[in-house]
Amino acid sequence: MANPGGTERTKLNRISHKASHDVSDLYSILDDNLVAHVGLVQDGRPLVIPMAYGRVDDIIYLHGSSGSRLMRLLAEQPEVCVSITELRALKVARSTFNSGMHYRSVVIFGKASLVSDADKDKALSAVSNAMIPGRVQEVRANTKKELAATIIISLPLDECSVKISVNEIDDDEQDLNKGTWAGTVPFISTIGEPIPADEEAAGLEVPESVKRLSKRS
Amino acid sequence: MANPGGTERTKLNRISHKASHDVSDLYSILDDNLVAHVGLVQDGRPLVIPMAYGRVDDIIYLHGSSGSRLMRLLAEQPEVCVSITELRALKVARSTFNSGMHYRSVVIFGKASLVSDADKDKALSAVSNAMIPGRVQEVRANTKKELAATIIISLPLDECSVKISVNEIDDDEQDLNKGTWAGTVPFISTIGEPIPADEEAAGLEVPESVKRLSKRS
Question: Cα B98 to the chain's mean position, in Å?
Answer without folding.
Answer: 27
